Amino acid sequence: MSKVKETSTNFANKQALANECSEVHAANIIGGQWALVICSWLINGKLRFGELKRFLPNITERMLTLQLRKLEKDKIVKRTVYAEVPPRVEYELTPIGYELKPVIQELEKWGVKHKELG
Known about the structure:
- Strands 1-3-2 form a 3-stranded antiparallel sheet.
- Helix 1 (9-20) packs across helix 2.
- It has helices spanning 9-20, 22-30, 33-42, 49-55, 61-73, 95-98, 101-117, and strands at 47-48, 77-82, 88-93.
- It has 2 domains: 1-30, no CATH class; 32-117, Winged helix-like DNA-binding domain superfamily/Winged helix DNA-binding domain (Arc Repressor Mutant, subunit A), CATH 1.10.10.
- The chain is mostly helical.
- The longest helix has 17 residues, at 101-117.
- The radius of gyration is 16 Å and the shape is globular.
């Protein structure tokens, strides 16, 4: 996966569109298959990294780590490290993340409806 340089025209266009259009801003945060499905699992409560990995068998550990970091940076997911041996780390949605619940539910309904039509 190549990273778009912050000086590129593509990056500038993407930023301008996200700044002007709230829907694009939201899609940039939860867009892509992994972010949305991670949020879908976390709606049901806290999960550890290994549990998320089991629910998403096709994601690599590196990609899961990157997606969780991005969601944490965007304040959608909260990461809690417990001072135990071995260390325990849990991920959960923040209040902002939980606001996605009705959006995810509507996307699921839409997907079910149109998957059957396809």
